Amino acid sequence: MLKRKILYIVIIIFAVGIALSIITNFQPVSEIGNSPDIAKIPIMNTSQTKVMNTTQTMGIIIVPYFGAENPQWGTIYQLADHYPGTIKYAIINPCSGPCDIPLSDDWQLIISKLKNKNIKTLGYIFNNSESIANIDYYMKWPAIPTDGIFFDNEGSTNNLINFKQYADYIHHLEGIVYINPGYNYPQVIDYVKSGMADVANIHEFGIDKPDYITGNYDVPPSKISVIVGNVYNISDMQTELTEISSKGVGIAYIYAKSYDILPPYLNEEIQKINRPKLLVPS
Predict the structure, then answer these.
(1) How far is 282 from 57, CA to CA, in rounded Å?
(2) Which of 19-33, 45-59, 197-211 holds the top average pLDDT?
(3) Cβ(97)–Cβ(126) under 8 Å?
(4) How does pLDDT run across 130-139, given as a tens digit for each residue?
(5) DSSP-assigned states of every residue in 192-207
(6) Residue 208's pLDDT band (boundaries 50, 70, 90)?
(7) By the 8 A CB rule, do 207 and 230 touch?
(8) From residue 153, how far is each of 96, 128, 133, 179, 281 by CA, in Å?
(9) Domain boundaries 56-281, corresponding CATH code
(10) Using CA atoms, how far apart are residues 241 and 271, in angstroms rounded to an integer?
(11) How many CB atoms lie within 10 A of CB 204?
(12) Cα distances (angstroms) measured from residue 215 to each of 75, 157, 178, 201, 241
């Protein structure tokens, strides 16, 4: 009888020990396997966060007002291959606007090659020739259409109400609306903020116009561009790009004499933006 009691006591003690062990090591089911490994979580310091949120790279718009057969296109292709992603836009301007005949195969080949290098193509239309038909000339009728339209002189007067039909039509075609008022008129920013223009060029003068950019546009830098001419040497070109980037302008083109000749320093211009990346505050 005594042995049986001792056996019962041993069994009870053993059972209590097991129960205490289970309670001590218990974790709620919802936490098992779901706790993050803190050592594996990347930590980003505040200075890194600030750089990522306040800067972005500049890009270039090329204004090549020469024919489809011109060998200078080869230079653009080579630079696009060497500095991928730096040339953002190129204007297609066959006849100072649309021609009287459909866009030729030669021009469509140019458009195709630019697209293959991730360069957005923009058909040229002066603001007194704005029409659905002229938009279709570039964006609907060709087998290889442009990515959007470059509206020269649009925004030089407050034409928002009339322009809306063309902007809406291009956006319906999933295209880009790029306006060039050529100056930072008060109404220009309204084109961008309203969504009618995707990019606005706020300057198209020479290097001797110091008031062409003011900064504080309250829009992303990629929506503002500047074109500066009469820049004849690399040093002045680099100075201009540094000033432009400091004012929150994300797209630029610096050229020397005219649009029908690429600037002799185009390689250095793209290199300035690309190596290292020229950053603009956003």
Answers:
(1) 10
(2) 197-211
(3) yes
(4) 999 999 999 9
(5) HHTTS-SEEEEEEEET
(6) low
(7) yes
(8) 13, 9, 19, 7, 27
(9) 3.20.20.80
(10) 11
(11) 20
(12) 32, 21, 19, 13, 14
Q: Are strands 176-180 and 87-92 parallel, antiparallel or unpaired?
A: unpaired
Q: What tokens were used for 181? A: 């008022």
| Percent share of the chain, pLDDT over 90 | 68
Which pair of tokens denotes residue 93? 């301007």
- Residues 28-77: pLDDT tens digits? 333 323 332 322 323 233 333 233 334 468 999 999 999 999 999 999 99
- Compute the distance between CA of residue 281 and CA of residue 138 in angstroms, rounded to an integer: 34
Token code pair at residue 32: 């098992």
d(CA 171, CA 197): 10
Q: Between the CA of residue 124 and those of 49, 130, 137, 138, what are the distances in Å?
A: 40, 10, 10, 9
Could you tell me the residue ranges of all domains in the chain?
56-281
Residue that has been written with the tokens 């056996």 in this structure: 7
User: What would the two tokens of residue 102 be?
Assistant: 């459909």
Tally the residues of the chain: 282
Structure tokens at 169: 């039509």
